[in-house]
Structures are given as structure tokens and as C-alpha cells.
Design brief:
The complex is a heterodimer of chains A (296) and B (298). Chain A has 296 residues and is α/β, with parallel strands linked by helices. Chain A folds into 2 domains: 115 residues, D-Maltodextrin-Binding Protein, domain 2 (3-Layer(aba) Sandwich), CATH 3.40.190.10; 138 residues, D-Maltodextrin-Binding Protein, domain 2 (3-Layer(aba) Sandwich). Chain A is built from 10 helices and 11 strands. In chain A, helix 6 links the parallel strand 6 and strand 7. A two-stranded antiparallel ribbon of chain B has the order 1-2. The model of chain B has no long low-confidence stretch (mean pLDDT 89). The chains are: A alpha/beta (296), B mainly alpha (298).
């Protein structure tokens, strides 16, 4: 009996260690018939990346692409930790992230893969149809606290935002709250609600006539109202975000979407990135409510 | 054969001993890890910054006071909600309910304990949040109060099952003696059974508090996560941000070893200390009153 048990223990240990060694050999020599690409990052891009991955795997059955979200910062951190091959980001890599990557022996490469408009949304019952960039900035920094100050009903404004790990949050802080002025140190009002997901923001705006929120155009549903936004140069010209108004730079709150690779892409990763810039892949961009890039 | 049996016995004994000691090891390892990652925050961040009232980590505002107070506010209110329901249900199950009702209720309460908090959070967003906004006529339903209701729901099953076990251990002779002296059933419950089970009931409450304090997902979904200082009376009906929600939503993003990372671990230490205080308090209370009841018995 005892021998039997010892034998079992040794057997289990053998199985476990065998698993380890096998794993490390596959890491060293990739199996040729199946390439595996790990892709992680921005929640703004995750649907687009999934649609791309699905299509690409149909035409290239030998390639397996795994896509997960989590936020731009999460993706770039994973890239620095070498746990993903491609990081999606709705903002540019920060200097300190770049330094960390270089310290880890990487030289991250940047690609602009699409453009995105950030739509400002309110409840459909809210009579306000448009805001100037200045009003929007004052709302989010806490200077304007009632809808009546911007032509609406006498209601307290409930400000909704994504969490601080979201690239959309950082973009909105820099381009809207600070109006693109890098010396401006204004931040979001302390009572801004930080919701963990795009869905949370849409749900609260849909239900609550006091709420104002923002999100990538691709996420906006029919149940909320998109506001027209005017630039400081032309305060009377309110523009609704769309593929057209983003492409011709009329809509103010739009940004590039990026992917980063650990180093200069090679092999399967390079093929995949090349494919992303083909008209086929850029059509998917359009279908999902983002704005295709004209030429690489 | 006998020899092998003895051998087996020793082997199993030592395995069980190791598993027993391992929990101490795990706690020490967790503590060591928390301290190693979190204590450098005290060096890198001035105390004045840490104890300020603004939390906006991406711009270097590391004031953890609103987070600590947010957690405490939600936990206290959740406990106030869960206490009457939890102890009432335990008393009903153990003292009043006929056996067949108990047989139905106990599994249901256990199912309530098994519902994942993310599911409760989802129900909270769909049902409680709009309801509370309209019912109380406040700007948003994503408030500390909404979180406290959900946390109350989450901690009730813990309180019920531990408190009921405690009530069940009260010897039947106590109840019989009280009834024989002419006390009513309610007087017996309130003046005899509950005081006799006091230590167990208090342990139940402490466990419930611990459960509320540590809960993350449900509070993150319904409290709005705005790091405001809950210092007004109506702060209960405004959004707040708890320590657990902060760690959960920000830990994924920070670069390992950065100031933000260290401060998040420091928040972890604060949480650890708070639950340690609750546990020490619980064990103090229960040993103290056990000594008293032992004296009574002897």
C-alpha cells in the first residue's frame, strides 16, 4: 500500500515536471503549423480587434489570435511584461511606459490603426442638444453644476466618466477638461462618477435624465442622445460626431487608435498588422462605428 | 498489516498537521508581501499627501482619506441593515420556526450566500439604482446607500448561519427553566437564549462586518466610485469610492513598483489592519463572555 502511494506521488511529480519542460520547448521553437498571437488592451478597441481576429483566422486558419480587453494601460503593462504580442491602446504610450519597456529590453513600435470619435451623451429626455467645448470643460471640472446653466432644466448635473485606467479617460482629460492646453492642471471634479465599463455609462445615461457621459462612438446605442459640440474657433457651429465629420476634422473630440508591438514586428505578427491596413480590414473599422484611416 | 496501518496513521497525521500550520504560513506570507510592496509608499509619498482629501492617482493626488471613510460608511450602514434581518432570521429559525419551515428556509438562505456578488451587483444596477433615484428624488441612484443595501444582502446569510449555530448550542434546559418560571416565549428569547449565545452572535456580526468590508465587485458596480469625502449627513445618498473598488479597478493598470502601485498596496495594508482589528475585537468579546458563561454554568 505504502509503495503504491509513493509510486503515485512520484508519478504525479513526474507528470507535473514533464508538463513544465514540454512547455518551455514549445516556447523556444514555435510549431510551424499554428501561430499564436496574444492581443490585449483598450476596451475601446476590443470589439474591433475581435472582429479583425475572427476574420483573419477565417482566411488564415493556421493563425490563432486571442483578444482581451482591460484598458489601454493594462495592455501596455502586459506588453512591457512580455505577456502579450500586441497591445491595443486608445492613447499614445506614456514616456514612463516607454522607459519601462526599454528597461525590459524592448523597443515598442507604434501603429495608428483607426480613428475614433468620443461622443458626449445625455438622456433623450434632456432638452439640451449641444454644448461648446468650454461649457463641457466647465461641466466636468465642476464649475457648472446645473443643467439650467447651459440651457436645460433645473436639474443637478451627474457627471459620468470611465475609470482612470481607461485611455478614453486620459484623452478626455487632456482634450476636453484641459481643452488641449498641456499647462492646464485642471482635473475632473471630485464627485465625478468613475464607472468601470462603457456599458455602465450607457445604462446610467439611458435611465437618468440628470446624467452626462462620454464614450467611443462605436459604443453608443440608440437609447441615448448624442450632443453636438462646437470648437472655440467656431462657437456657433455644433458638430455631431460621425465618420465623415471625424475624417474632415470638423468634429473636435476625436483621436487616433494605436497598437504597439514589443519590437519591430516579424513573421505572423507582421503579416497580421499588414492585413489590418488592407481595405478589407478597414471596412470592418467602418462597420463597427470607428473611422478608417486613409493611408498608412 | 498492523505496521502499515500505523504508518498510514502517522502519514495522514503529519499531512493534516502541515495543512493546519500552512494557514499560518499563508497569512504571514500575505502580510510580508503586503508590507514589502506597500510600506515604501510611506517613503515615496508625503504623509500630508496621503491624508489629503483628493484621490486622483494619474495626476499624483494620493489622498486615501475619502477611500477609508467611504469603506467605513458603506460597511457601517450595511451592518445596520443586516443586523436586524440576520439576527431576527437566526432567532426565528432556531427558536420559533417549526421544523418543516426550517428545512425550507435554511437551504434558501444558503443559496442566497452562494449567489456571486457580481450577479447581485447586476441586479443592483438594473433594479435598485433607478428605484432609489426615483424614490428618494436624488440626482443619481449610484450611491453609498445602494451599496450598503447590497452589502447588507450579501452579509445576511453569513450572520444568519453563524448566529443560528450559536443559538442551537444553548442548552435546552435554559429555555425550559425560563419557561417554567413563567417567562413568555419572547422573554425567554430576549433575556435568556440570546444572552447565553452572545459570544456566537457577536462573532456572527463581526464576520458579517468583515464580509461587507472586503466585498468588491458589487460595491464597485453600484456606488458610483466618486472619491468624495463622506462628511455630510446626505453623503449616504451620494456616490462614494471604497478601498476595495479602488484596488480592483486600478491595480490592473499600474506599473509594478511605481508610486501608485505602492499606495494601492498601502490601501491593502489599511484594509488588512481594519479586518485584523475586527477579528481581534471579535475574539476578545467571545472569549470574555465565554468565561462568564462558564462561571455561570459551574
Amino acid at each position: 500500500m505504502v509503495y503504491m502511494r509513493r509510486f503515485l506521488v512520484i508519478l504525479i511529480i513526474l507528470i507535473l515536471t514533464a508538463g513544465c519542460t514540454q512547455r518551455s520547448t514549445t516556447d523556444d521553437t514555435p510549431i510551424s503549423q499554428s501561430e499564436y498571437i496574444e492581443n490585449k488592451g483598450s476596451d475601446t478597441i476590443v470589439n474591433l480587434a475581435l472582429a479583425w481576429a475572427e476574420r483573419y483566422q477565417q482566411i488564415n486558419p493556421g493563425v490563432r489570435i486571442s483578444v482581451t480587453g482591460g484598458g489601454s494601460g493594462t495592455g501596455i503593462t502586459a506588453l512591457i511584461n512580455k505577456t502579450v504580442d500586441i497591445a491595443n491602446a486608445s492613447r499614445q504610450i506614456k514616456p514612463e511606459e516607454m522607459q519601462a519597456a526599454i528597461a525590459a529590453g524592448l523597443s515598442p513600435q507604434e501603429f495608428i490603426i483607426a480613428r475614433d470619435a468620443i461622443a458626449v451623451i445625455v438622456n433623450p429626455s434632456n432638452p439640451v442638444d449641444h454644448l461648446t467645448l468650454d461649457q463641457l470643460s466647465k461641466i466636468y471640472s465642476g464649475e457648472i453644476n446645473n443643467w439650467s446653466e447651459v440651457g436645460g432644466e433645473d436639474r443637478t448635473i451627474v457627471r459620468l466618466s470611465r475609470e482612470t485606467n481607461s485611455g478614453t479617460h486620459v484623452y478626455f482629460l487632456e482634450s476636453v477638461v484641459r481643452k488641449g492646453n498641456s499647462d492646464d492642471k485642471t482635473i475632473f471634479a471630485a464627485d465625478t462618477l468613475l464607472l468601470p465599463s462603457s456599458e455602465g455609462i450607457i445604462a446610467e445615461v439611458r435611465d437618468n435624465p440628470n446624467a452626462i457621459g462620454y464614450d467611443g462612438l462605436g459604443y453608443i446605442t440608440e437609447e441615448v442622445k448624442i450632443l453636438g459640440i462646437s470648437s472655440p474657433e467656431q462657437p456657433d457651429k455644433y458638430v455631431i460626431p460621425s465618420a465623415e465629420t471625424v475624417s474632415n476634422n470638423e468634429y473636435l473630440i476625436s483621436r487616433n487608435l494605436y497598437v504597439y508591438t514589443q519590437n519591430k514586428p516579424t513573421g505572423a505578427i507582421k503579416d497580421y498588422l499588414d492585413w489590418i491596413f488592407t481595405p478589407e480590414a478597414q471596412n470592418i473599422v467602418k462597420e463597427l462605428g470607428f473611422v478608417p484611416i486613409q493611408n498608412q | 498489516m498492523n505496521q502499515t496501518r500505523k504508518h498510514d496513521d502517522q502519514l495522514i497525521n503529519s499531512v493534516i498537521r502541515i495543512t493546519g500550520y500552512s494557514s499560518i504560513l499563508f497569512v504571514l506570507l500575505i502580510l510580508f508581501f503586503l508590507l514589502r510592496e506597500g510600506l515604501p509608499a510611506l517613503a515615496s509619498t508625503p504623509l500630508k499627501t496621503l491624508f489629503s482629501i483628493r484621490w486622483y492617482p494619474i495626476e499624483g493626488y494620493f489622498g486615501i482619506l475619502p477611500l477609508i471613510l467611504g469603506s467605513i460608511l458603506v460597511t457601517v450602514v450595511a451592518t445596520l441593515i443586516a443586523l436586524p434581518f440576520g439576527i431576527g432570521a437566526a432567532v426565528y429559525l432556531s427558536e420559533v420556526a417549526p421544523p418543516w419551515i426550517r428545512d425550507i428556509l435554511k437551504p434558501i438562505i444558503e443559496i442566497l450566500a452562494g449567489i456571486p456578488s457580481v450577479v447581485l451587483g447586476f441586479i443592483g444596477i438594473l433594479v435598485f439604482v433607478p428605484f432609489i433615484r426615483k424614490f428618494l428624488d436624488i440626482p443619481t441612484g449610484l450611491t453609498a446607500f445602494t451599496g450598503a443595501i447590497l452589502l447588507g444582502l450579501i452579509s445576511i446569510p453569513t450572520i444568519v448561519s453563524v448566529a443560528e449555530d450559536a443559538l442551537n448550542t444553548v442548552p435546552n434546559s435554559y429555555r425550559q427553566a425560563s419557561l417554567a418560571l413563567g417567562a413568555t416565549r419572547w422573554q425567554t428569547i430576549w433575556d435568556v437564549t440570546l444572552p447565553a449565545a452572545k459570544s456566537g452572535v457577536l462573532t456572527a456580526v463581526m464576520l458579517g462586518i468583515g464580509r461587507s468590508m472586503g466585498e468588491t465587485m458589487a460595491v464597485m458596480m453600484v456606488t458610483g466610485n466618486a472619491a468624495t469625502m463622506p462628511v455630510h449627513l446626505n453623503s449616504l445618498f451620494a456616490p462614494i469610492r471604497t478601498m476595495t473598488a479602488t484596488i480592483a479597478s486600478e491595480m490592473g493598470e499600474v506599473a509594478a513598483g511605481s508610486q501608485h502601485y505602492q499606495v494601492l498596496f498601502l490601501i491593502g495594508i489599511v484594509l488588512f489592519l481594519l479586518s485584523l482589528v475586527i477579528n481581534i475585537f471579535a475574539s476578545l468579546v467571545s472569549t470574555k463572555s465565554r468565561q462568564r458563561s462558564e462561571r455561570l454554568l459551574s
